[in-house]
Amino acid sequence: MKLDELQNQFQRQLLAQDCQDADWVSASSRGLSAQFRLSIYHNAYRVRLAETLLDTFEHTANYITAELFDTLAYAYVEKHPSTNTNIGMYGQDFPDYLKQALPSCQEVFEIAMMDWLLRRAFDGPDSLPLTKHRLEGIVASGKDISLLKLVPTVCVYTQQWNSLDIWHAVNQDKEAPVALTLPEPITVMIWRKETSPHFRSLSHIETKALELLQSGQSIESLCEILSEQFPDLDIATEFGQLLARWLGDEILSCNPD
Amino acid sequence: MSSFGLGLRTQHYHDFLNGQQAVDWLEILSDNYMVDGGKPLIMLDKIREHYPMVMHGVSLSIGSINGIDKGYLKKLKALEQRVQPMWVSDHLCWGGVHGRKMHDLLPLPFTQEALDVVARNIHQVQDTLQRPLVLENVSSYLEFESSEMYEWEFLSALCRSTGCKLLLDINNIYVSAFNHGFSASDYIQGVPTESIAQFHLAGHQNNGVHLIDTHDHPVCDGVWELYREALKHLGFVPTMIERDDNIPPLEDLLSELNIARTIASEVTNQRAAS
C-alpha cells in the first residue's frame, strides 16, 4: 500500500465514530487484533482533545458538572476534527456548540466565552503598555498623543446573564448563584496585564469610549462624540477618570501600528 | 562523560528561577512556546538566562505525505533564533494529512517510499534551520503489512541519506519491543552509534498484553537495564528524564536523574576496569 493511501485510511479510521478492523495492519505477535490496536490511537485522539477542552473551559466544566461536560466535550470532538497545529487553539467553536446543545442554559455559553477569551489573552501578543510614567515622558518629549491604541489582547463582549457572578463563584469554589437574565446587557472587557488575564465590566460611557478608540478616533473627536451622546456628563472629567483607569489597567499600548 | 537534563515543565518554573538546580541543561517543548506572547515566553527567556536548552517538538509531522507545514516551520525557526538551543528535535512520525491534526505521534511504515518522503521533509527542515534535525523514535501499538525493514534499519538509512541525528527514547524502544515482539537489544545494536545525539528516559503504563507510552510513571527497572546496555554499546550522550503527565515535585525527578548518573558512572568504571 502506498504511503498516501495508508495515511488517508489511518486518519479516516481515527476520525470515524467506530474503530474498524484494517487489513493493512500486520498480525500482532501478542495475538491482538488490528481493531484493538487501532482503537488505542482512536481513543487517544478523543481523550487528548477532550482533555484540552477541559483545560481551556475549566470554569464551564465546574459549573455544569464534570459528567455533563465530558459528554458534551466528547460529542463536540466527534463532530469537530482539529485543524490547528497548536492543540491549545482547539475549541474555538465550543461555546457556540454549548449554546445549541443547552438551549435552556444560555449562561453556559457566556461562561464558556469567558473561559475561551481569558485563555486567548493569556498567550496573546505582547505590547509595551502605556503607563502614567511613560505618558508623562511622551508629553514631555512633545510627541503626538492625539491617538491612543489598545494593547492587542483587549477584547470586549456583551453578556445578557449574570455570568460574571457565576464565574466568580465557580472560581472561588463557592456555590454558583441561580442563573438570571440581567435587567440590561453588560459589556465585559478581557485583557492581559503583565502575565495574567484580567476582566471587568464596563460602564456605558467607557464602552462607547473604547469602541471609538478601537475605530481609530482621535482623543479630540472621541470627546466630541461622547459629549453628544452623554450630554448630561462632564466629558472632560469623565475622560480624565477613564484615562487614569486605563493607564492603571495597562490596556493602552505604547507600540506604534 | 554524559550530561544530564530534564524536560522543563510549568510546575517547576519557580524551582528553576529560584536557584540553580542540578541539571546541565533543560529540554523545552517547542510547541508550548510557539505562541504570540505572554507568560510562556517571559518565563522561557528568564530561565534561558540560567540554563542551556534544547528544543523538542511534537508537531513537525516529518513523515506526512503532505510535506512540512511552512507556517509551523517558520514559527519553529523563530523560536530557535530566540532560544539558541544546542539542538532541535522532533519525532519520526506523522500527525495528520489534508489539514486535519491528530495531535498524536502516528507510526510510519518502514518502506523505501516512506524513507524518501521523510528524507525530503528532513532536508526542508534542515535547510531552514541550518542545522541537523534530531529525530526521536516513537512508541507504537501497531505495525504495517507494507513494512520492508526493521525500524533501526529505517533510522540508519535516514541518518545516512540526510545527516540527521537521533534522539533515542529508551522507554519507547522498550515499549515497542514488547508490543511488537522484537528484541530491544537488536534495536540498540542496529542504530548508528555516531548519529546518537540524546537519550530520553521515561515511564510507561503496563496493560498486561500491551504497554502504553504514557510518560507519567517513574522509569521502570527494564528501561534502566536497557539504558545501561545503550551506554555500553552506543557510548555516553546527553540523557534526560522525560515526564509529561502526573508531574512530581522537581526533587523526585532530580533523584531519578541521579539514578541515570549512577548507571553512567558504573558503566564508565566497568569500561576503565576492562
Strands across the major sheet of chain A, in which order?
A: 2-3-4
Stretches of chain A where pLDDT falls below 50 for ≥5 residues?
A: none
* Global geometry of chain A: elongated
Element-level helix/strand string of chain A: HHHHHHHEEHEEHHHE
Give the low-confidence spans of chain B.
none
The computed structural class of chain B is alpha/beta
Instruction: Report the average pLDDT across residues of chain B.
Output: 96
Largest sheet of chain A: 3 strands, antiparallel
Adjacency order of strands in the biggest sheet of chain B: 1-2-3-4-5-6-7-10
For the largest beta-sheet of chain B, the strand count, sense and barrel status come to: 8 strands, parallel, barrel
Beta-strand percentage range of chain A = 5-15%
Secondary structure tally, helices of chain B: 9
**Beta fraction of chain B:** 5-15%
Please state the CA-atom Rg of chain A, rounded to the nearest Å: 24 Å
The mean pLDDT of chain A is 95
Q: Explain this structure to me?
A:
With 257 residues, chain A is α+β, with helices and mostly antiparallel strands. Chain A is 54% helix and 12% strand. Chain A contains 11 helices and 5 strands; from the N terminus they run αααααααββαββαααβ. Chain A has helices at residues 3-15, 34-56, 58-64, 66-79, 94-101, 106-122, 132-141, 163-171, 204-214, 219-229, 235-249; strands at residues 149-150, 155-161, 181-193, 196-202, 252-253. The N and C termini of chain A lie far apart (53 Å). The relative contact order of chain A is 0.10. Chain B is α/β, with parallel strands linked by helices and 274 residues long. Chain B contains 9 helices and 10 strands. Chain B has helices spanning 13-18, 39-48, 70-83, 112-129, 151-162, 170-180, 184-190, 221-234, 250-273, and strands spanning 4-7, 25-29, 53-56, 88-91, 133-136, 165-169, 196-201, 205-206, 211-212, 239-241. In chain B, the strands form 2 sheets. Chain B has an 8-stranded parallel β-barrel, surrounded by 4 helices. A two-stranded antiparallel ribbon of chain B has the order 8-9. In chain B, helix 7 packs parallel to helix 8. The longest helix of chain B has 24 residues, at 250-273. Chain B starts with a strand and ends with a helix. The model of chain B has no long low-confidence stretch (mean pLDDT 96).
